Structures are given as C-alpha cells and as structure tokens.
Amino acid sequence: MLNAHAVITNYVSPNFHQKFQRRGNANAMLWRRRLTKLNFTPSTFKLFSLLHTQDCSFRPVPLTKEAFTYILQSCRSNTNQLQQIHGLLLTTGLSLKNSLVTCLLTNLTLLGNMSYARKLFDEMHKPRTFLWNTLIKGYTKNHIFIEAASVYREMRLVGVLPDSFTFPFVVKACAELPDIWVCSAVHAHVVKFGLEFVAMVRTELMLMYVRFGELDLADFLFGSMVERDLVSWNALIASLVQNGHASKALALFRQMGMAGIKPDAATIVSVLSGCGQLGCLEIGEEIYEVSRKEGIECNIIVDNARLDMCVKCGNVAKAKNMFEEMPKRNVITWSTMILGYAINGESEKALGLFSRMQKEDVEPNYVTFLGVLSACSHAGLVNEGRAYFDYMARSNDKNVQPRKEHYACMVDLFGRSGHLGEAYRFIKSMPIEPDAGVWGALLGACAIHQNIELGEHVADQIFQLAPDSSSYLVLMSNMYAASGRWDCVDKVRLRMRKRGVKKIAAYSSVEFEGEFHIFYGGDRSHPQSSLIFEKLDELLKEMRSMGYIPNTSSVFHDVETEEKEATLTAHSEKLAITFGLLNVNPEFPIRVMKNLRICDDCHTFSKYVSKLTSREIIIRDKIRFHHFKNGLCSCKDFW
DNA sequence: CTAGGGTTAG
C-alpha cells in the first residue's frame, strides 16, 4: 500500500517512487530534500486533498507531522487551503499543541488573515511564549499595531513571561501608536525582564524614541549599547533621516567614521537621502565619491537615492545626466525623475518622461502617478490631469488604481486653478472616504482664492478627521487674517492654544562651504546678523523704488502696519537669501531650503532680488522648487 | 522553530 508520503513524492518524480519503495521506509531527510526543491502549486495541493476523499484509490492514511509541515510550507497563497489543512489537522488526531499550529499560524499571518489567526490561537490550550510571539509578530507585520500591543498586555495578564523575541515586535508596534506613555511602560517592562541590553530589543527601543522625537533618549540608549554593530548604526541613521532629523543623521555618520566603523550600501543610502532632505548636494556627492573609492557596493538603491538627492537639491540637469547614465533603472528611478521635473516646475519634461517610460514598457505604480498628477497640478494642466486620472481609474492594474493621495492631487489641481466647485463635487463623488489630506488640498485652494464660506465648510470636515493638525489650523487662521476677520483668527488661535497644538516654527537654511546656516524668523543669532539686516534694509529700499509693496495681509492683526512690515522683513527666507548674497560666489545660484511653504511676500521679494542683483535664487519650499531668475519664477506664480 | 538597517510617495 502506498502511503501519503509516497504519493506526494511520486508526483514529484515518477522515478523517485521506485527509489522510494526500494528504500522501504520513508526517509524524512530524503524527501524533505526532494520536496523543498519543488514549487508546490495548487495542483500539488489538489493531489494532497485527493488523498483524503473517497474517489481516491489510495486509502487515506493519517499524515505524519512532517508531511503536514511540508504541505503547510507550500500553501502560502491561499487561506482556503490553509483552512482545509486546519480541518485535516483537527480530524487526523494530531494534537493541536504541536509545532504545526505555529506553522499554520505563521502562514495565516503572512497571508494577512489575522482574524483567522486569532481564532486559531484562541483554540489553543495555554499557549506558550513562542505562540504569543508569533501572534504579536503577525499583528505588527500587518500594521495592526494596537492589537499587537494589547496582545502583549493579555499575555502579561495570563502570566506568560515575555522573552527577547517578544519585545522587538511589541516595541515596534508601540512606536506606531500615538501614545508615548504606552512606550515608556513597555520600556519599563523591558528593563523589568532584564532584556534592555539585548541588541535587537535596544535597537527597536532606540527607533521608537526617534519616532517620538526623543532624540536624547535614543542617543542614550545607543551610547550605552553593549554590542553596537553596523546594523544598529544604520538603523539609527535611517530612522533619524526618516523622521526628519537629517542633520543629526549626518552628524552620526561622521561619528561612525571616527569610531572606525565602515559603512555599507545601506548606510550610504540613508545618508544620501538625508542630504537630499537638507539640500546639501556637495556634501552628499562627496560622501558618495568616498564610498565608491572605499569599494562600497553601488547598487540601484544607492543610485536611486543619489538621483533623488540631486533632484531634491534642485539640480535637474545633473539629475538628468545621472538618470541617463544609470546602468539599471526601475520604477523608483523613473518615478523619482518624473517627480523631480514636476517639483522643479518642468512639467512638460515630466510628462514627456512618463510617455517615454511607457514606451520602454516600464510598469508605472501609484507613486509614478503622483508625480505625473503633481506635474499637471504645478502647471495648471487641468485637462491633462483629468485624462491621466481617468486612465488610472480605467486601469485593471491594482497598483495604478487611484488612491486617496491621487484624489488629493486632483483636488489640488482643480482647486488651485480656480475650479473650486468642481473640486468640491469631485470629493463628493469619491468612491472611498476622503481623508484630511483630500480636504486639506481643497482648504489650500480656498485660501488661495479667498473663498471663506467653502473654506469654513471644508475646515469643519477636516477638524472631524484631524482635530489637532497644526498646518490646517494655521491655513485657516491665515485665510481669516487675509480677509480681515480677526475675531475668527482669534478663535482659531484659541483653539490651538487650548488643544496644545503648536505652530511649526518656520526656518530656512543655506549650505555654504560645507556648513549649514539656519535662520528662523526675526533671528538675530547668526554671527553676521547685523550685516544681514543692514543689507536687507538697503535691498528693500531699492526694491521699493522699483515698485515693491510688502504684502502684509497674513501677518498678525494686533500689530501696526510698520510693525507688520518689520515682521515680514525678518521672514527666515529673506534672511537666508541675504546671507547668500553676502557670501555665496556670484557665479553660483543661491540655494535656500525652507521647511514650510514660501509666503506670498517672500515670493515677490525673491523675484525683485533676482532682478535687482542679477543673481539666480533657488528656493525649495515644503512641496516644490522656485527658481528665480531675472525677476521671474519658474513656477510662473502658480503655486 | 521566531529577530534589528536602505531608494520614490504620504
């Protein structure tokens, strides 16, 4: 009689069947080797289930634990199959207590079927730490962070002890929760169970604190780590970059060099990405060159990061060369370049590159379309934008179906070009629930076109979805201020104060001789401060004679006109530009990075300065570049 | 038997 092992093996190779029979007994090692070489397919599974039906000429034989394990490993694509195996497990008399359940549970979590996974888990009698870990890991990997944290709590309540495998996932999940107190509690647990010096646990704790902006704590954990390997350095650098602390990341990178640790490709990727954020192309390029000389691998990810850096520093020409010379290009490469054109105001080139991408048969994804749509948005190409959006909606490809971000792009496109009604109807017709980002795009448009009624309605929607978002509140307050409704401005400000929402401080930075010079509004802390203000005064005088009128509409209402002008004068980008005029070699453009959007007045100011001084000024604000040359801006005043 | 780091967008 054939047993189940033999049938499966036979399916693998007819010859093997004979060999198998000659050997008499199933040698687990032997057929493990055969089976793992195979790609188990649904048909294999069918064969397997055939063994357990009456049409089968083979007598059903209880499968061994090994057989189940192999079958389970092969059925990762389909919950239905797993469910059948689960059923078989229950009927074959194999106990649910063994490692098969772990395997089944792992597979379910990989498929993302967490509700089933949880049910299976609940069937277990007194699950041990290992199984708890598997469940927590599943929730974390499927981004159901709150469940991951509460499963940990449950685990503690029933008295199961966590181990060093439990915490990496619990901590990772907690870092995604909006509550730092939960995180502190978990940190306390880590200490309580004596696991604070386990490298991976500590690394995760560190990342968690970076996420909450507690850099000192992260630094402490890192500094007092017992075994600090390359991965922990990389982890910290990467998370600093991802959470907007690029200059800290760069400092850490230097520290790493001094500690004599050799970076690898992953380090370089994060560092280049950080340089892009800061807008320091020269520093980034130097780091890249050095890494090449030191023989650090340069793969497509490094190339992409470098391309992105170039684009984010506003050097499109250089980026284009880099793009053409890349040995390999993937979707990310193309998307980066398309978006690069878009944010630098070269919409036609962005769209041209997109059609070239299609000609070269590279499949675009949803990010690619964000670039395409924002290219349309920055140039006011309403019809084109609509056409691309329709194309996406008609596409059968799941990767290209419009998402919330695309709707936000379209709303921005309609709204910015003055079609507020259409933007509103567009939101109302969305098949998915609009989020704060979608409404926010419309609020921005309302602010530009001074449509207060609609703005208020939109703000109501936003504040239900994101009550404490500082940028929308500021937008609202500016909108009221521009129309002189100071009572409403006060209300918004009061609301912000009550809920503890802080306005993000605006700052601008300039890279000069390998160093950053950061300016806040009205900042007099810079060593050249008095020189800068002197020069600024002089510039303003000349500009006024050319017809410049300061636009004070968005400044606080409770100050006199003169004071308003003074506040405006000291805007961070004006200080940064003036610093650039005083220091940067006249042959080069002055590059300024701003963390928020440039204000109307500073935009006008920059145009005048470029004309007056015949200098090229490049400002990168939160969402795009402005290239000022000879009194004109590349955005054509459409932003 | 499980585990930490890298590129576009947000």
TrEMBL record:
PPR repeats lie at residues 128-162, 229-263, 330-364. PROSITE patterns: PPR. It holds the Pfam family E_motif. GO terms for molecular function: RNA binding; zinc ion binding. Keywords: Repeat. Residues 547-639 form the DYW domain. GO terms for biological process: RNA modification. Belongs to the PPR family. PCMP-H subfamily. This is DYW domain-containing protein.
